[in-house]
Amino acid sequence: MANTRAQLRSTTVVLGGMGLLAAALTACSSAPDKRCVDRDSYRLAKGYKVVSDKNCRSAKVSLNGSWYYGGKKKGSWVTGGSFTKPSKGSGGSSGGGGVHRGGFGAGKGGSGG
Amino acid sequence: MERRTITPRPDWQRTVEEQGLIYPLTRHPDGSLRPYWDESAYYVFTLDEAEALEETVGELHRMCLAAAGHIVAKGRFADLGITDPRVVAAVTEAWHRRAELPTVYGRFDLRYDGTGPAKLLEYNADTPTSLVEAASPQWFWMEERFPGADQWNSLHERLVDAWREQAALLPPGSPLHFAHSSADELGEDLMTVAYLKETAEQAGLATDWISMEEIGWDTLSGRFVDNGLRFIRAVFKLYPWEWLTTDAFAGHVLDTLDNGGGSGTTLWIEPAWKMLLSNKALLAVLWELYPGHPNLLPAHLDGPRELARTTGYVAKPLLGREGEGVTVHEPGAPAAVPDEPCCYQQLAPLPAFDGNHVVLGAWTVRDEPAGLGIRESSGLITDGYARFLPHVIL
Question: Fewest 10 Å CB contacts: which of B93, B99, B254, B330?
């Protein structure tokens, strides 16, 4: 007889595109349009200082490292990019004269718990 | 309940990264990197234990809903530190219209050692994390190491079902946005949101990304907009309501809040009433309503009372996360006055297995128990240096 007791587990788990995202975020060599920067290093003229990828890949480093997508690199500084991974259909924030951004999340850490 | 050691899979780090856990190592204060995903050991439960825990979690969730209803009915918002009348009104309306507002998930933290009843430590029902490791790498670990075995883990199926069953509550003709805070440098928030977005897509929903920081306010239309200047009609946010209601855009959130049935223009998931569950004052309200319940610890809001000399107590800031601000007070220790409102809960030291302090994270999806994730820590407070260990039912 087959075991008929109810299982407490999912029958299958399908990750779909999430696996690809995870792979992209942990790729050994950083993609050309993605750099790890020190979020606290911002200078008006230069942008953010590029730091070692390990500051973005591992948890709880002392330095405030974040992936920075796109932008222009000059020396060890990068500017004009975004902290959010660009996605299809999401352009820049230009063109909306009456649109304000940054009203959420200023100066806070991770949100989960 | 038993802890067993085992040799990790040779390529475990790459494996769990591919399964969404892109933060498998934790940087400790001494600079060393240690595994956050720790498969050098695992926990074994009997089916009876797992089923009893499942029943407990179902009951605790029902009790928490009753406590939330009590807070609303009696106007106990000040006990939770919620004093803004507009926020009180929004939470009250959200509670009354909760059948019209999609909810997804929550995580109970339980003290349990396999011998006595599980004790509720807290309920993270607004922005819980450690979801990805529980739902995905833990499941695949079991498939590889204990093929055919069981695990208390129907998270994935239940999440997909939750989106499918609540799809009709979402505003039509607009994608469901998934928002994380880009201030989280670990990638944990991003991957939690990415995973939830994936489950929504598997339920057939149209979705899109945004970060909280990028959400725009269009002054002409008086609407929140995404990076393509499209209106944000519905958004899952891994971002606590107490920040949503205090940030610079807080007034806009409340002005445009779709609190059920198209009553506004932006629907936020989890809904505002989840603030009632994720606030530590809930623990004291529960103890008031169910004094002596076997799955509760005594908890008070006005001070530790008798706990200061009998059992000792833990002072938990009402809105703390990841153990932040939690202080432990042994019985008879000199009185300490915290500088923010706290809930005072009986000290119930986490049980140690092979010297590791263990806390069970028991998941709910909508109103049903959905799975288990185990975290171990070196000290009594489960903080950002905790480790996640898989479990199996044998």
Answer: B99
